[in-house]
Every structure is written in C-alpha cells, then in structure tokens.
Specification:
1 helix; 8-stranded antiparallel beta sheet; mainly beta; 148 residues; 7% helix; two-stranded antiparallel ribbon
Length: 148
C-alpha cells in the first residue's frame, strides 16, 4: 500500500455488533444474515356452514437464526462466550446489530435474548488468498427493527 497507510479489515465492513451485558462491542463484520427470516406458523380451518372464507389460526412465530461472519481476531469475544457456555453457563444476552454507512448508523436491530447455537471456525488453505473468517449462529426470541 502506498503512503504507509495500514490496511484494516474493519474498514472494509459496515456492521457493528454490541452485547453490552458482557462488554462486547465488535466492528468489522463481513456478513450478517437472518435478520429478516421470521415466520408465523398457522393452520387453515374450514368451518361447516361458513363457505365465504376459511379461518386462519396462528400457532406461533418461529424466529430464524442470525448468522455473523467476521475476520479472525484475538481475543474473540464470541469464542469466549461459546467456551463459557461449554462449561455449562448457558446465558442469553441482549445485543444490537447496526448497519453503518461511512460510520453513520443507517439501520439497527435489537435482539433482546441472543444465544449462540453454533460456532464455526475457518478452513485454512495456504494456497488461498481469502481472509480466514469465523461464523456464529445465534438463536433468539425475536428481534426489533429500530427506525432510523
């Protein structure tokens, strides 16, 4: 790079994740997915004698998993959280995901009770020029989009 400028993976990404109860504030996510994958389960019931339209009965809402992908960093707060859970201390934490544009918040989602369900470490290949990334899947009890 010219001019002695140091390249940072965090400059290339525009997501900010905060989990205030454990002091995690992480910037530099490569990908965040699953923020819009919530689905209501329902049952269609046709009542005898009422032929105008079927009744739709809602059972419950199923929340999709949120997936975060980021370049390896040390110490990694998600790995620490996962290792703590592996010892039997299962804890849900509130968290926020913020979409940034030139460091200005443009959209935010609040996840009141997040819990790690899967942690995936990278495949390492000396012949590849890709950045090694970790991936975590979070389950939750619903999320709240915040208008900005």
């Amino acid at each position: 790079m010219s001019g002695g400028a140091k390249w940072s993976a965090e400059r290339a990404y525009d997501f900010h994740v905060a989990i205030p109860t454990v002091g995690i504030v992480v910037q530099g996510f490569r990908r965040v997915s699953g923020l819009g994958t919530n689905e209501s389960e329902y049952e269609i019931y046709r009542e005898g004698g009422d032929n105008t339209a079927p009744h739709v009965l809602f059972n419950h809402t199923r929340n999709g998993k949120i997936t975060l992908e980021w370049a390896i960093r040390h110490p990694d707060p998600f790995v620490i959280w996962w290792l703590t859970m592996a010892t039997g201390m299962i804890t849900r934490h509130p968290m926020t995901v913020t979409l940034l544009e030139n460091r200005i918040p443009r959209a935010m989602w609040i996840i009141p009770q997040a819990l790690i369900s899967r942690l995936e470490f990278p495949e390492l290949d000396a012949l590849s020029s890709e950045v090694a990334t970790n991936k975590v899947e979070l389950i939750h009890n619903g999320l709240i989009p915040v208008p900005m």
